[in-house]
Amino acid sequence: DTQRVAAETSRALDVFFVLLSGYLVFLMQAGFAMLTAGSVRSKNTKNVLLKNVLDACVGAIAYYLFGYAFAYGEDTSAVEFIGSGYYALSKGFGVTSNSGFNSFFFQWAFAATAATIVSGSVAERTSFYAYMAYAFFLTAFVYPVVSHWVWGGGFLATIFTVESATGPVDAGTIDFAGCSVVHMVGGFAGLTGAIVVGPRLGRFDSEGKVVPIPGHSATLATLGTFLLWFGWYGFNPGSALALSGGGYIVAERCAVTTTLAGATGGIVTLIVLKLRDHIFDLLACLNGILAGLVSITACCAFVHPYAAIFIGAMGALVYILATMVLLWCKVDDPLEAFPIHGAAGAWGALCPGLFNVREFQETAGLDPIGGDDYHGGLYGGGGRLFVANLASVAVIMVWTVGLVLPLFVLMRVLGILRISPEEEIIGNDVSKHGGVAYPIDATVAAEKQAAID
Amino acid sequence: DTQRVAAETSRALDVFFVLLSGYLVFLMQAGFAMLTAGSVRSKNTKNVLLKNVLDACVGAIAYYLFGYAFAYGEDTSAVEFIGSGYYALSKGFGVTSNSGFNSFFFQWAFAATAATIVSGSVAERTSFYAYMAYAFFLTAFVYPVVSHWVWGGGFLATIFTVESATGPVDAGTIDFAGCSVVHMVGGFAGLTGAIVVGPRLGRFDSEGKVVPIPGHSATLATLGTFLLWFGWYGFNPGSALALSGGGYIVAERCAVTTTLAGATGGIVTLIVLKLRDHIFDLLACLNGILAGLVSITACCAFVHPYAAIFIGAMGALVYILATMVLLWCKVDDPLEAFPIHGAAGAWGALCPGLFNVREFQETAGLDPIGGDDYHGGLYGGGGRLFVANLASVAVIMVWTVGLVLPLFVLMRVLGILRISPEEEIIGNDVSKHGGVAYPIDATVAAEKQAAID
Amino acid sequence: DTQRVAAETSRALDVFFVLLSGYLVFLMQAGFAMLTAGSVRSKNTKNVLLKNVLDACVGAIAYYLFGYAFAYGEDTSAVEFIGSGYYALSKGFGVTSNSGFNSFFFQWAFAATAATIVSGSVAERTSFYAYMAYAFFLTAFVYPVVSHWVWGGGFLATIFTVESATGPVDAGTIDFAGCSVVHMVGGFAGLTGAIVVGPRLGRFDSEGKVVPIPGHSATLATLGTFLLWFGWYGFNPGSALALSGGGYIVAERCAVTTTLAGATGGIVTLIVLKLRDHIFDLLACLNGILAGLVSITACCAFVHPYAAIFIGAMGALVYILATMVLLWCKVDDPLEAFPIHGAAGAWGALCPGLFNVREFQETAGLDPIGGDDYHGGLYGGGGRLFVANLASVAVIMVWTVGLVLPLFVLMRVLGILRISPEEEIIGNDVSKHGGVAYPIDATVAAEKQAAID
Q1: Cβ contacts (< 8 Å) between A26 and chain B: which residues?
Q2: Which residues, at least 6 apart from B209, have a Cβ–Cβ distance to it below 8 Å?
Q3: Closest residue on chain C to B129 (Cα)
Q4: Is C281 in contact with B22 (Cβ distance < 8 A)?
Q5: Do the chains contact at A270 and C54, CB–CB below 8 Å?
């Protein structure tokens, strides 16, 4: 009986850990909503908020119907490409045994995150129907398939066959919490969308110079960033997926490395932009924190704290550089979602191959060989993990762009991708959503209120 | 010793689960505060915020002094009507054994939720003293007694005596997380208040047509809804009250069904209102999500995911319909709290009798008979559970309205229910709270600031 | 094997509890950010937000490099003054065993809280460089040393040698969750800063009368307070540091006493200010809640619920009184951080010596004697605990002011402490941060937007 109690408590704790981490990841939706709202003009506030709300809603239905099956269903294909058979949570879920519902919940929250990233890149000028099309497509197919490749036993997880003490074993890409799987997918889909949909009116003047379009509330952007940071403690430590079997040691390492990388990303960005622009730039600092958090996401369970600081700092530089390149290419990404999630995401996705420590991989149950040659190259782990992750980065990039580009181009050809210039000038809120987010007659100061009433 | 460790860890995990769920439910206060603030005019912002703050504060004292005793104290009455003897946490709480404090904490957070719902229905024109009277009354008496009936061993939990394998057992209403106990009580109390206090000035024009009074910030309303959704993961899964004894399987089901019902509620509302009003209505979508979340609250632990989708969809339709009926009746409910919590709550309270699956009730320890005839009618469970829940809905409705109506009428007769028209026009904030929520000289743009200073 | 599972589950649960509590404490950063932003004028919003963001970021690096070592490193000094040897998490952290990372994470969140408190006191007129200097100094040295004295085996924890059944044992100050260690340090550092930097322009008129400078958003202040209250459930119950060994009983007591003290603080403040100023003052009520929460922080694990109500009520009165004294002394503390965290903090720090119940100390493993004479004086515990805590209050006050005063004076002498009057008039955001927080051309109503574009 003690054995039963002990086993059940261990299991219950693991389920609770996954659920709670999922709650925190879900709260990132609120974080993205506030960050996006604060970063756009008030005339499009309701529009971007509604898109964020629907990422969670449409994402839940899409992931329930198809996404979870594609990601974690049984893979009967020879090429380990896609799962199947669990559509609408229909199979493999017993009644009183572990029903797998905690896993679905956690993974749904991840899928919704990927979709949300895109909405920032195409904000303020993309049509609502276009948005709904790619949001469903992304959460139902594009993202789940990638997660299958890396986490669901797909081909990216089994690139190599390496020799171990017990004979040949499979080894492949390692992405602990979804730096490539979630952030790169979202970031590159966003980049594709931003290019095809084109810049906002007035973003570049007649001579091609950048015109700043500040968002309408730095406070909302800050609140959003704090909520995202908070949610990241579900995203990264939660990716241990269990506290048993040493998972709690993994989780606490993740909490520390995530903190240090995010903090460093913010500080480095603040300093670099102070040197470049001679202001202490709050919004850039917030984005730098996010870039640091993204950068550590793949390797958070496997690296030393000092390495986390370096990784976060580099992530911030990659973010800053990517921002400059985007503007130089006249690509308008209102939330800088590609520099943060795509560019810093690609950097972060390569970090396991450089910084992973063998012992920490072992603790996390991800030491395929038990030997000394499949971890971070800077720690004597050889180059194969780096190559595997580099291959993943390339494959995920090609897959995402290759699927999303035709969709956006098709919608553009059909004329349903972008709102009209008239609508863009008066704003989505008035043209599509029944009125502004902050109605003037609801917000005047009291002394004027009497006159109005 | 291992036995002791295993038992204590199991107990500690259960307590932690209840505490943490309570924290999340408490955060719903912040959610309600933001939703309410965003949904009223800025001239009453501080007023509604203060009311929300006091729901938590006054609720804590009221529930500590009386509420918890009425709800979970020993019931010595023959009719199983009310508990007693635990006033001010005075009895039955040992020192080193389970002190029951986690239970009090969790139940307080629920009581505060019920009170908060009401404040939305009567917002913008009700006097502060009237508010304090009903808030105390509701958390100290009205709500606790209902919760005693359903959860504390009261008469609604023991309506029937049914035959089981081991002889006759009691069976009654099943409301897993408080769809009738919390939401219906709040919703019907709010409806009563909204009717007695009357509509806001200008809500209906001289011909009786509805004049829209939009709230002052769609962003705050969205933030509030996300926080509420987040808190619902404490409300519904947390109502398992333990992770041991299979509670974690119950909790993960709740997380999934809650998600799907809320998501569906939002999508259905968005589509219906697009067809009706030709706009994508953010605020209605948010309320639709809440209606979906309310609808699943009674049966979240017992239904299939696809049923959750249906229940959430129906909840959204009930919400939309109730909104139209209210306006047709010239009842002004600024937060649409009755349509969401009262009407969709009544629908949700009936769902266990329709959709509950026997095996899931068994897992949750709520299978009174062990046979096949006391669960959802659509799953072969007979009609008795539906009848029991229908009786509960009627009893709770009569009880709530029957107690709250005299209170509101009395306050109206005494002239202390509603603020004066002058105060209503200039707003509560200036007349009662020392100034507006967003002082003009604190918020002007910088270029004008220099001139002012 | 069952023994191993049981032991590991217990350990995993403890780590999870600490991590999760740390997440909640981290979210207090968002709470402080919103509270501070809402309490200042909009022209300084980005400035105070950035300071809050950097508290977390700079605090993480400072605490990683030095703070944690000073606080919890090995203390080789004869006077038990400071720890050492764990700089940059370099020592004592094994690979697969408990790495101590959860402890670092939790303590970092505390350190960042102490720094944040100060930023409120000196808001709106202090230079950014000055801020960065004291933030680093406080999280790297001032606070960690204090925490070492009280929690890390330092001299304040071993003031007395008392007789126990098993011979003489050390006994000293008891501060369960950091009322003196965190709040008093932050509050007194803030007071020192507010005095040296001087009042904001226009805070006192030419005759020395107080001119109200209301903050720009009561909504943000309310949101911030709710987030802080929420985070306090990590701060206080989390300070049990483990759920095993009866820790869960301690945690649930903390949750209840924290709730009751905060709620009472809010209600008492509301009533007192209604009697004094004849308005229902939302912002004062929020600060009263915080004062109540601060007051219970030292003794939350050890007192009866009714005592928590008394302690919270007294905390509110201390807060109100301190506010009046500050203004009478012409000290300008925009967030009232000293009255809340310093003054109510000092009151709270003395409460264990008055209200602690012996059995509850025993449950929490803090009954040094096992006898009847080292707990709350009002419960027959003698006066030594009160004396020990009084000594702590004095020492911490002297230490904090003694270190922070020279720093602020030095910066003032060097002319780097305060921004110029011109900058203060146009606001930090325009002069330092590249523009206002709410750009006018991003926030105009839609009807005017067309004309602008």
Answers
A1: 229-230, 233
A2: none
A3: C280
A4: no
A5: yes
Show the domains of chain B with their CATH numbers. Answer: 2-85+110-442 (1.10.3430.10)
CB A194 within 8 A of CB A401: no
Decide: B144 and B111 in contact? Cβ < 8 Å.
yes
Give the three-class secondary structure for C203: coil
Q: Which of B53, B98, B108 sits opposite C259 (nearest CB)?
A: B108
Q: What is the pLDDT of residues C111-137, one digit of tens each?
A: 999 889 999 999 999 999 898 888 889
Binding partners of C (≥3 Cβ pairs within 8 A): A, B
**ipTM value for the complex:** 0.96
- Per DSSP, the three-state class of B171 is strand
Contact C39, C221 (CB under 8 A): yes
Interface of C with A in 93-132 (CB under 8 A): 95-99, 101-102, 104-105, 108, 128
Q: Name the helix (H) or strand (E) containing A25.
A: helix A2-39
Which pair of tokens denotes residue C27? 């979210």
Closest Cα in chain B, distance from residue A164 (Å)? 37
The partner residues of C370 in beta bridges, in order of sequence, read none
Measured in angstroms, the CA of A318 and the nearest CA of chain B are apart by 31
Residue pair A158/A170 in contact (Cβ under 8 Å)? The answer is yes
Identify the H or E element spanning C326. helix C305-328
Helix (H) or strand (E) run with residue C47 in it? helix C45-62
pLDDT at B448: 52
The residues pairing with A204 across neighbouring beta strands, listed in sequence order, are A210
**CB contacts < 8 Å between B and C, how many?**
200
Give the integer Cα–Cα distance in Å for B98 and B101.
8
Residue C45 clears pLDDT 90, i.e. is over it: yes
Distance from the Cα of residue A237 to its chain's centroid: 15
Closest residue in chain A to residue C221, using alpha carbons only: A219
Give the pLDDT band of residue B25 (cuts 50, 70, 90).
very high
Quick one: tokens of B320?
Answer: 């939309």
Spatial distance between the Cα atoms of A342 and C30, rounded to a whole number of angstroms: 26
Q: For chain A, list the contacting chains (3+ Cβ pairs, <8 Å).
A: B, C
DSSP-derived secondary structure for B21-78: HHHHHHHHHHHHHHHHHHHS-GGGHHHHHHHHHHHHHHHHHHIIIIIHHHHHSB--ST
Give the CA count within 13 Å in the CB-facing half-sphere of A119: 34
* Regions of chain A short of the pLDDT cut 50: 94-98, 445-447, 449-453
Q: What is the structure's pLDDT at A365?
A: 82
What is the DSSP annotation of B412-434? HHTT-SB--HHHHHH-HHHHHSS
CB B388 within 8 A of CB B173: yes
CA distances from C10 to B2, C6, C13 (A): 11, 6, 5
**How far, in Å, CA of C269 to CA of C321, rounded?**
11
Give C72→chain B minimum CA distance, Å. Answer: 27
Please, what is the end-to-end C-alpha distance for chain A in angstroms? 71
Q: Which of C277, C241, C242, C236 is nearest to C258 (CA)?
A: C236
Q: How far is C215 from chain A (nearest CA, A)?
A: 14
Alpha carbon B348 to its chain's center: 12
B101–C438 CB contact, under 8 Å: no
If DSSP codes are grouped into helix, strand and coil, which group holds residue C81? Answer: coil
